[in-house]
Design brief:
Two copies of one chain form a homodimer. Chain A has about 280 residues and is an alpha/beta fold. Helix content of chain A is about 45%, strand content about 15%. Chain A contains twelve helices and ten strands. In chain A, helix 6 links the parallel strand 3 and strand 4. The mean pLDDT of chain A is about 95. The interface between A and B is large, with 58 and 58 residues.
Amino acid sequence: MSFEKLAELIEKKNNPTVMGLDPKLDYVPVFIREGKTVGDALFEFNKGLIDCVSDIIPAVKPQSAFYEMYGIEGLKALDRTISYAKEAGLYVITDVKRGDIGSTAEAYAEAFFGPASAGTDCVTVNPYLGSDGVMPFVLAAEKYDKAIFVLVKTSNPSSAELQDIDCGGVPLYIKTAELVKKWGECESGKKRVGAVVGATHPRQLKELREALPDVFFLVPGYGAQGGTAEDVRFAFCPDGNGAVVNSSRGLMCAYKKQSDDANYQKYTRQAALEMRDALNSVRK
Amino acid sequence: MSFEKLAELIEKKNNPTVMGLDPKLDYVPVFIREGKTVGDALFEFNKGLIDCVSDIIPAVKPQSAFYEMYGIEGLKALDRTISYAKEAGLYVITDVKRGDIGSTAEAYAEAFFGPASAGTDCVTVNPYLGSDGVMPFVLAAEKYDKAIFVLVKTSNPSSAELQDIDCGGVPLYIKTAELVKKWGECESGKKRVGAVVGATHPRQLKELREALPDVFFLVPGYGAQGGTAEDVRFAFCPDGNGAVVNSSRGLMCAYKKQSDDANYQKYTRQAALEMRDALNSVRK
């Protein structure tokens, strides 16, 4: 679905949080793992996480790698997770970071958005190949009522190696941002092309919000990766909208600090409420 | 396996060709499709293609997107294809172009190289996230005796939009090449970190071969995408080694020019022999 729908859900729940669903097996409480296949354990954990926050969180972001690493079984768990989250009324961003030449990008877009897919609302896309690697996703997004977030400035420590390279007075991520703007301004791209900008880069968040005033931001890196509510203040538009902030470990593994596996849902919900309040305190 | 093993296979078969296995369903001859599930049809076609060239071609490159687009069934066909190609003695490069933050890159590296994988020798990796998106693949490559090709200058028309941006007198792809050199010079990366440079950019092939004299090149874009043997001349090292050139449609769909589905293997083999001779004429 377009970002208008995501914005409506954020408004309704008064919460710009997306919960990452990156289920490393050792994130899953032991009592859930016991007696189950890996795929069933991942899905059961995700289901429990969704159940305990779906009334207060608007979106989830499964990271494809953590399912792909368990092969076919993992991918089935991913599809079930996407379906379950959709049934729970959540916006689903599947983090796949694909990027390839035109005909191949078309195949990926069909894989994630087409009628045989599990029904994700949105995927992440890598910009390194330029327009003909991205536009097939934009066209498919319009066709199937979906959206994409394009990597601009990622949250990881070495993102600077290429993304911050000086390109005639501006860093590369600004050049990428200019492409994102162009893709989002084409007829198919309106309200469907967003940008990924890491919570770990507050200065760049501010700079990119100014460069892309009308573009929806997905902001990873909050919590375990080091980003704080203060750091993401400038991800939001002046009206407090236009961004979702992701936390994965901070929500999924909240129970670990308490050594109380059985009540993991209680701690995830508590962490989600704290994150909501922290984000609302800086965006309004 | 490291690129030394790939080089041995190229030497033995006197052929630097890699056959792309990108089985769009309409590439598959109708008589193979009839009465089969999509997954079985894709695998049967791949098997037929491998059978008719495995004595003259050293490597194959399945493009993951064309399997992922058929969901679980497609992924099973990909795994079967990788296993079959390995049994046939071929070097397998799975074209996945993944790239993500550290912990996620680790999960992908485990997915493709780990004990539960189908056993590919090599994958393609996107450099946009920098070292901590790539090094987990390099470390896993050493651990499991695998290799990676990092995208440097891709074959598609819009590759220039980011990759050719001027970065203080040199284009971005040269900055990427410097990173590839660094990754390949670390202890784990020796003979395991190659570069993707498109056949459609002969000038850049020459420039990058000079910048990366010891790096193995994967050169896509030959044939249907427009690259010729003359265009890829400078991909090779002065001794005629150090590169593999990919053709997908040119080999897989050779039968289409003849409208002779039943004998598709004959035409694929003929096209492969022509490609081998054309490449050998420029590299020696």
